[in-house]
Amino acid sequence: MDNRTEHSEGPNGHDNFHERPRLVKGGLTFNDITELVSYHAERKTPKAWFAAFAVASSGAVLLLAMLAYQVYNGVGVWGNNQPVAWGWPIVNFVFWVGIGHAGTLISAILFLFRQQWRTSINRAAEAMTIFAVICALIFPTFHVGRVWAIYWTLPIPNQMEMWPQFKSPLLWDVFAVSSYFLVSLIFWYVGMVPDLATFRDRAKGFFRKRILGFLSLGWTGANRHWRNYEKAYLLLAGLATPLVLSVHSVVSFDFAVSILPGWHTTIFPPYFVAGAIFSGFAMVVTLLVITRKIYSLENLITIDHLEKMNVIILVTGTIVGFAYITEFFMAWYSGLEYEQYAFLNRAFGPYAWAYWIMMTCNLVTPQLFWFKKLRRSIPVMFTLSIFVNIGMWFERFVITITSLHRDFLPSSWGYYTPTMVDVLTFVGTFGLFFTLFLLFLRFIPIVAMAEVKTALPESDPHHYEGDGQVASTRGRDVPYIKPSQGYQSYRGGSQSTPLSDDDENSSAA
Amino acid sequence: MSDTESRSSSLLTWLIDPLRPTADSAPDAFTFTGDRRSWLVPVALGLALLAISALGWLVDPSRFYVSYLIGWTFCLTISIGALFFLFFNHLTKAGWSIVVNRINESLLWGFPMLAVLFIPVLFGMDDLYKWTNPELYIEGGPKYDVLIAGKAPYLNTPFWGIRMGLYFVIWSVLSYRLYTLSVTQDVTGDPEIMSKLRSTSAWGLPLTAITVAFASYDIIMSTDAHWYSTIFGIYLFAGAMLALLATMVIIGTSLQRSGMLTDTITPEHYHDLGKYLFGFTVFWAYIAFSQYLLIWYAGIPEVTIFYRHRLEHAWEWHSAMLILFHFAVPFLLLLPQITKRIPVVLGILAVWLFGMHWFDLHWNVMPNLFTDGGFHWVDFTTWLGLLGLFMGAAIYRLSRHALVPHRHPYLQESMHFENV
């Protein structure tokens, strides 16, 4: 994306086809962006936030209670049984790791592809990654029978002279997911330093100044700072990209290296990665549709951003569909009765309901995004993004459970039913996730201000045509959320003038 | 320019280039300045090498057929890669790639010619595809093979032929649209053509993905009808992208060394092509290694046999070479910026990867039919012979039209593109 092209906004804020759309709508200036993003972290906490936080943190407490109960009584409190020794915990683990992948895709991969539209959404998406990975890490930690011996998975020299088995993909998981968490955290933090410095410079209170001053590492925005920062960011993006692909591949190895029909198939690594991006983007859409409404960020996270995300959902959803077709075809083509039965059992066995939920949600509903009208409709995308996440949870459920509950020996066929503890633990992770996400919304710049500013046409050195006048003031006539309205008389809801996108309706939030 | 008057006259020219020449309307900076030799020499060389290969056919027909199939698949993957590359660029409204897109479009229209060049393979069906042997399907017979007999609904010659025809029709229709729309834009300058290209790409991408996957099963995987791998279509796609990008760099640098497009393609574009090359080198390794790891790890006999063939009788050297020279060496060499920004260096690396892609295809097909590792001279003559025809035709197409889609709305942006 490059801003040299002249812009002309047609009706509904939509550009002519071959012109680059403005990423930031409403003609926001540099100052407007700073004010708009900083406002929410600087004002008094609204009551609605406390209400939401109370609900979310109750969920987090529920999670702690369930984990304590399970550790005290043993893993038998879950529904896992002999043929199906991996139940909901592993399903939820893969689900949450998958959710986390969109953040890295948005921040690292789209950065490498020079997609400037990522700037408005990368901060929230990366936050989502980190919180989702925290939720994910809970499951492999606690689904072992003896959680207090979990440190044996680490290659630490010890008095027993025993080491972990490096051939196990479960050990690779330990390394993959923990390094993924660390790298994501560093990447997120490095990206945040300039914005924290902005907050520091605006801070009024004594402690706020000190804390932000500490966290922003003495950033002054000097030329030398920026040069090193850009290099570091590029390197981190380059490192995070193979990492993100390898993490979910390793997660897929947990299944694919086994000899189980339905698990042992070579397409799993890229297929899991595509599925992860698919579900992760759906989660980003779910969260951002609400966030942009409540925090009046419609001019930064525009309908164009959401549309692009929906296109990615469509693409990755279609890749996942392609993988379903491939698996089904190869199961037949292999000529192995076990493989063939595994897939027939998925479609017509006792878990057929789960299979068809997965098929409908992942293969059928995202195809609605072929229509531009639906891609740009807030209620439609919100509904579909929920559907996608339901579908992707069931995909992991289908892969894990249906392959386990009926395999080689009919004498060891079983059925799996989750218990209340399974369900509440999963609900609890959502509580933890939203607790962390609400804290993020409260204290951290939700949008990467410094990066969004580089996407403005005004930041292009050629923008001012030598006479000090703004060459193009087009786009300024679009009504936007005025600072005076947004920052000073904010009353918890959005009082903004509606955007020029006439296909936006407020039923989303 | 209506469709009727833009069409080529005779069938032969249609196979090579379906459009009347439009180079006259191009600005001087974007015209092909080479003479006939630039495409006649590769074609003549290709024909000569194919004539020598015919001798190889007399000596050892079954080896010839396999070598021919590998060479033919190599050319096919370039065109398939060209399809994908254009899909990606049209769908993402990429601005940087406009100046190299026409090079890509010249490689696109390879499908009709490749369909004609496929005829020798049909004569060698029994040598290439053991599943054509009817004795395998006679129950209770001495050669009865229960696994292959189970695949009969899919692996039978008529249906196989219908599928191949279908793939080529789909690919040719998509190529025709992408190629002719872009060339038409040179003449009419209609900016709306961009949206047509984009919509074609939108439905073309999933369709091509599915057809390429099944084509990889039909053309390569079924040379060993017992073996199967779900990732195989993606494996071929990764190789195809690599082959295409290498070809683009080779043609781009060659054009510039011949004094064309000197100021149009800049180190910035090479840098991006180099990044693409690097990315697909890694992607190929990821797919190839995933396939190997999962099969090695589980050790299920039906599937492990594929790697058994490739880890004995001197094929183990080929496998080691593949890891080292298809991944490790290009990975390290393409990692720094500097190698991607110097056209000559990137050109050498592209030639290297170009050769390695053929090596990869050879490694995939040959051990299924010949137990002993090594090369036969006919492997090279068929490959280079077909490549001569394929490349000659591509350069001929380039010479008939502007070297750059010069009325594309993003052209200025592409000319001034910089890697930030």
From TrEMBL, chain A:
Compartments it resides in: Cell membrane
Location of region: Disordered: 1-20, 459-509
Biased composition (Polar residues): 485-499
Entry's transmembrane regions: 48-70, 90-113, 125-150, 170-190, 232-251, 271-290, 311-333, 353-371, 378-399, 419-441
InterPro entries recorded: NrfD-like
Pfam families found in the cross-reference section: NrfD
Similarity-based family: Belongs to the NrfD family.
UniProt keyword annotations, A-Z: Cell membrane, Membrane, Transmembrane, Transmembrane helix
Regions of compositional bias (Acidic residues) in chain numbering: 500-509
Domain of life: Bacteria
PANTHER family assigned: POLYSULPHIDE REDUCTASE NRFD, PTHR43044
One CC-aspect GO term: plasma membrane
Species in which this protein is naturally found: Longimonas halophila
Record membrane topology: Multi-pass membrane protein
Name listed for the protein in its UniProt record: Hydrogenase
Automatic annotation (TrEMBL), chain B:
Residues spanning the membrane: 39-59, 65-87, 107-125, 160-179, 200-220, 232-255, 276-297, 317-335, 342-360, 380-398
Keywords, sorted A to Z: Membrane, Transmembrane, Transmembrane helix
Keyword match Transmembrane helix: yes
Domain of life per record: Bacteria
Keyword check for Protein biosynthesis: no
Protein known as: Quinol:cytochrome C oxidoreductase
Originating species: Longimonas halophila
